[in-house]
Structures are given as C-alpha cells and as structure tokens.
Amino acid sequence: MLHTLRQIVQGVNQSEALDDALQFLVTQTKQALETQCCSVYLANVEAGHFTLMATDGLAQSSVGNAVIGFHEGLIGLVGEREEPINLANAHQHPRFKFIPQVEEEQLNAFLGTPIIHQGRVLGVLTIQQADARQFSEQEESLLVTLSAQLAGVLAAAKARGQLTAASSHQRSMVVLQGVAGSPGIAVAQAWVERVAVELEDVVEGQHQDLDAELERWQNAVLQTREYIERLSLRLGESLDRDVLAIFDVYQNILNDNSISGAVEQHIRANASAETALVRVAKDYIGQFAAMKDAYLRERATDIRDLAQRLLYFLQQRAHELTEHEQPLVLVAEEVTASMLASIPRDKLLGIVSVRGSSNSHAAILARALGIPAVLGIADLPLKKCAGRDVILDGYSGRLYLSPSAAVKEEYARLLRQESELQIEFEKNRELPAATADGRRLSVMINAGLAADTEHYGGGADGVGLFRTEIPFMIQDKFPSEEFQFQTYCNILNRFPGQPVTMRTLDVGGDKALPYFPIREENPFLGWRGLRMTLDHPEIFLVQMRAMLKAHHKCRNLRIMFPMVTNIAELEQAKKLLRKAHAELQDELGEHFALPPLGIMIEVPAMLYQLRAVADQVDFVSVGSNDLTQYLLAVDRNNARVANLYDELNPAVLNALNSIAQQCRQYQLNFSICGELASDPLGAILLVAMGYKVLSMNAANIGRVKWALAKVSMSQCQHMLQKALNLSSADTIRRQLYVDMDSFGLGALIRPGQ
C-alpha cells in the first residue's frame, strides 16, 4: 500500500494542471481502494461552500457545478469537525443532504477526510461504495495520508489562483503568509528577478590551454570584484559604512584562497574554468546548507550568488545595471544582496523571497534601507507573479497577489495615513520621551548591522544594545584587539556623554562566524553567548581588553553579558573581566574604574534568580525576543510556527511584569531591548509595568515617543491591568486596540489587526 501511495502522490505532483491532478487523484485512489467512487471537494471561502472539483463515480456533469454549504451535509460536517467521518450508511445520517445532480443514490458507505493546510480546511476527499459497510482502518489511514499530501498541492494551486471554479477566468486575490523580514508596506507591480545563469546548467568540459584558462578565471574574478564594488557604490548614499560591509563579506569570499585555490587546482587537472567553479561551489554550498546554524546556512546563498556572477563573467557576458522606470516590488526564488543592490533605491519599494530568512543578507539590507520585506513564502507562484499587482505587508508577513479593489483602497488609505503620521513622528523624535502627564522616560537605540537601526536620525538617549558580534561576522578571522578597540571607540564617540551598552560576543543560535562554525542539533539551546566565550577565555579576554581600553578613552561604556543561565557563569565572567582590567591598569600605569556591568535576561531560568543577580551587577536588560522564543518554544524564523511567536502571549506579559516587580524590590536598574519596545502598543504596556528605559530600532523612535505622549501613566496602567486579566494573545490584542482607539491612537492599528 505504501508503494501505491507514493505512486499516487508522485502522479499528482507531476500533473501540470490542477484539474488533471485532481482527476488523477480520484481515479487512482478509487482503483487502489477497489471502491466504487472517489471525489474531491474544494472550499470556496468567499462563497461559503464546497465545490465538487473531481470525481470518479459521480455524475461528471456535476463537476464544478455541485456545491454544498460549509454547514450542510456530510461534506460540511467533515469540514466542521476537521476529522475523518466513516459511515456504513450515509443516507441514514441526519446531516446527509440529497443532491440529485451528483447521482449518488446507490452509494451507501461513506468515508470523508478533510484536506488541511496550516490549520485551514481547503477541501474534503471522499470515497463511497454501494455496500453498507464501514471502511477499514487501513483504508481510512490511506485516505488520511493522501489528504495530508494533497494539502500541499492545493496550497500551491491556491497561490496560483487555480482554486476558483473551472468556469471562472478572472484572476482572484490570493493572500500568502510568510515571515516578516522587514517592517513596512509596499504597493506596486511585481518584478520577478531570475538568475541569468544557473550552476546546474553547466555541462562538464575540459580546456585545451592551461594558461589561457587560468587567465579566463582570473579575469572573471576581477570583473566580479568590480561589479560588487559598483553595487556597493550604488548603495553608498543610502547606507552607513558598517552596513556596506556586507559586500566586504562577498569580497572576502572572493579572496578566500581555499575557494580560489580549489578552482585553480581543478583547472590544472584539465577541467574548464566553468566546470571547476561549479564543482567547488557545489561542494561549499552543500557544506553550508547542511549546517544547523541559521545564519551560517544563509551563507550558502552568498556562495551560490557569487558563483553565478563568476559564471556569468566566465561566459563573457557584459553586466549592466538595469535602470527601472517604475517603482516595483522585487520578487525572486531567493533574493540576494546583489539583486537588491542592483535596483535603484528610489524604485525599490519592497522585496519578496520564496526562500530565505531574517538572517539573509538581503533581509539585513532591507531593514537597513527601510524597505519592507516578506520572506519564506514557499507557496508563491513565481512564474505567474511578473507584472502582477501586489501588496506587501512587512508588519504581518502577508503578501496579496492581485488584491481586490477594497484591499487596495484600504492599504492606499493606510499609506496616506502613515505618510501624514510620519511627519508627526519626526516632530516628536527630538523631543524628550514622556507620557502625557509628564512621566519622563529614556529611549535608546539598538545598534548593529543585523537590526533596523542603521539610519539613526537622532532623538535617542544613548545605545541600549550594541551587538559586538557584527565586527566579528564581517571578518574572515577573529578580529584583533586593536581592530575591536577602534570599532568600539567609533560607536562610543558617536554618543558622547550618553551611555552605550555593549553586549559581549553572542554567537550561536541564529548567529555564527564563518571561520568558527558551531555545529549542533539544536543551536538555540546549545553552545552560544556567554557559554561559548567562557570556554574560550582567549577570545573573551581580548574583547574585554578592547572594551575597557575604549571605556578608558571615552568613559561612556556599559558592558552586558548575554545568555546567562546561572550565577556561576556570571561570577566566572566577572573574574575574567577583573583580570583584563588589572592587566590594562598595569600596562597604562593608571587606575580607572570598571564600567557599569549588567546581564541580559533572556533565559527563563533567570526570572527566578534575580535576587542573587542584584548582588552581582549594576543593571539588567531584558532581551524580549529570545525570552519570548524560549518561553513559547517557538522559532520565529520558521514560517510553520511563526504565528505562535507572540509577545502579547499572557505568559510573556506576566514574565515581563514579574521581572519589573522583582527589580524594583531588589533595587536593580532594569531596561528592555527587544522588538516589543519598538511597537507603540508594547511600549505602552512596558511603561505601565515600570520600564523607564526602552531600547529600540532607530526607525521607531519618533513613533514610540508620539504614542507615549498621547497617554497618561494611569491610562497605560489601565491597559496593562486589562491585558493581564485576559487568557489569550488574541483577546489581549483586541482589547488593547479598543483602548488605543479610545485614547486617540487608532491610527496605529493596521488592516488585519
């Protein structure tokens, strides 16, 4: 039976048209189960009914015409219950509905299973037989398995707009869900970018002249270097130098002797330059793609992108940057940094990628440029997107293909509203952060390459989180003490007289170093953050010395340890810090005080150790992103479960409130530096809890200050108390939106929220 199942699934997947796939399914299933009828009904959500789309056993004239309501008949019952229904005599069931046109009078036995994709019922698969008997467990298991396999096929068909009735030729709106990669909204036509040359298209060959072939390879490398430099220059007016360092990563890959040397070795063994490049590239791509670490896996995309650029120039093609006349949304199988950079900034409104995650260089650049992005839309019909009207919602991770007039109108209104509000936000950016009744607050920024903070336009009271791993990531080896010292001085000097909190090296989990891979089954629960650096004091001490030297010069540093699980780790880290401090004082011949020391609260275990923490550090900062992830056991970069990641989950809100209460009790300074603080709604709740220091991406400073200035402390606390008494994130969100609207903050509520 397993062999039969595989054959059916393979045949369905190989069918080019949905109608053919469904007809193949019902015919083959009927034969495999030796029954008299097999049919498939698909859900039409807008019409509120199921439509018979394929059958082998019922009247063919009813296909596309026979419909049954979501709450009617046995088909509706299967959809309601979302589970199989197995009946010996369907006609005797109270929910049976007689539909003359389908001609099923002689069929008594009925087995129906729902077709469900990501929690939504897409249709119902049924088998029927004249004999009044229940179908066996084996038959039921096979039908359930087929339904589960069919769900993916139907989801993809829905994305292509093929789930409407056969007589409909209009292009209907399709809503696809991905991962929100960068916030914002874009309304434009889709521009589908396809790679000019694929590694898989290369036919293996040999060369006739070694010197000529080596020269061809070296020229291709040179042309690729020049092309990347042109991309970097094109973005140079829009981005800071530290963000443009992404292209330095590309240049470093080109400089890598192991890769270039391997290509030349294959060439010397008589392989053509194209063949040599493809062999080496595929080897490296395979190694990176197999790694568990999310950030490191994304480097396979960088290598493929570069290899295809090299291949392009090997084939002696001239690459001119396209000049687009109309604004567009860039759509691709996998958007790369070079694709994004090749489109003029004033024409690029958003990016959509079938593959990729928030760790990709394209996502990092999108956030830095303030371009909305949605990633990981596996069901996106790429071939049918070109020139199609789209709406990209980078807040919710949704993509609307051929949006309806009503949806277009709503998003057009939203864009106008956001444009008007942005003027108000900018006015508030430079004002002191405070509630309507004068409660003063401190707003800081999260700084670093991988966050939405590169366009710092002022208005912050300092840096609440500087991610020191970024200088490590853009190198091909561990950076020297002098390099780190200069890097830290640069950021400290940008905020003279203001506190700058630097987090010590935090790699592992969703971040990795290309020259120091960490291979683990579950990296988020493994060797990351302080755990790793304590095991490598030679790395940790160099960073401590560089930080302390920068503090000695600038006097505005605060040091923070990430991923602390217990007090023993904290004591060990402090011991190493004191060692570095003593060494520097001896070398400088001068005494200077240690900077304030703190830890990040992101491991749930620390919620129960704050009393002991208060005796060890000067402050704590809540990393709400990881804390939420660990509390809810959800990888927010995984599109399958991203909907479960919700910082308004009652468990998260109660944990954050508990931290604030304990810190006040133990007289411990506390702040928060996760994404929740960047959301005006989240900021209001945090202020009500007692968080007076909020660190966020720079783009949201004006928005958050504007929202806080509209509400009093008592109104904030009113919203918080209601939220803490509710039992689900959805009900909390709905109640908070009602309150926001009553307090004059309704403009911040977006469609679909």
TrEMBL record:
Coiled coil: none annotated. GO terms for cellular component: cytoplasm. Transmembrane segments: none annotated. Residues 17-164 form the GAF domain. Pfam families: GAF, PEP-utilisers_N, PEP-utilizers, PEP-utilizers_C. It catalyses: L-histidyl-[protein] + phosphoenolpyruvate = N(pros)-phospho-L-histidyl-[protein] + pyruvate. One of its GO terms (biological process) is phosphoenolpyruvate-dependent sugar phosphotransferase system. PROSITE patterns: PEP_ENZYMES_2. Belongs to the PEP-utilizing enzyme family. PANTHER family: PHOSPHOENOLPYRUVATE-DEPENDENT PHOSPHOTRANSFERASE SYSTEM, PHOSPHOENOLPYRUVATE-PROTEIN PHOSPHOTRANSFERASE. This is phosphoenolpyruvate--protein phosphotransferase. It comes from Neiella litorisoli.
